[in-house]
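F.,

This is the one I mentioned.
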């Protein structure tokens, strides 16, 4: 018989290494701090949340800084997305590709992709940011 020790972060992500798990939980804490300026959006398919546009921009800028700190190879790309000289979908693609390394960053990026940056409305999925007339749910 072989004993295997696995460490589980507070969001359920599992690690073989205690140090990596602790580092990941530190990143989760930083993400929570960044996102604290935004209203919570539950995963309900027919509910959208009107976010304060200034808070969205502030959170996104800080989030891109954090992503650059975690994945230093892509720091310039994240900085370009933060200032708007590169479309945010580029950051989304990188974070999606690196999902296994840091799932909290990909999940948080998904929230930003669900936001219409002109109105501040955070939809349940990115499709509605380009097809707002098709959203039949409620906006809180």
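My design for it:
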């Amino acid at each position: 018989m072989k004993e295997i020790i696995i460490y589980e972060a507070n969001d359920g992500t599992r690690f073989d290494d205690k140090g990596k798990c602790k580092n990941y939980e530190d990143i989760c804490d930083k993400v929570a701090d960044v996102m604290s300026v935004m209203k919570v959006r539950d995963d309900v398919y027919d509910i959208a949340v009107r976010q304060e546009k200034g808070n969205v921009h502030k959170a996104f800028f800080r989030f891109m800084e954090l992503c650059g700190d975690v994945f230093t190879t892509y720091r310039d790309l994240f900085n370009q997305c933060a200032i708007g000289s590169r479309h945010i979908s580029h950051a989304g693609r990188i974070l999606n590709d690196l999902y296994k390394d840091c799932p909290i960053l990909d999940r948080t990026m998904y929230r930003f992709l669900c936001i219409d940056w002109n109105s501040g409305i955070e939809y349940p999925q990115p499709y509605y940011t380009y097809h707002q007339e098709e959203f039949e749910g409620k906006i809180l």
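The chain has a mean pLDDT of 92.

Talk soon.
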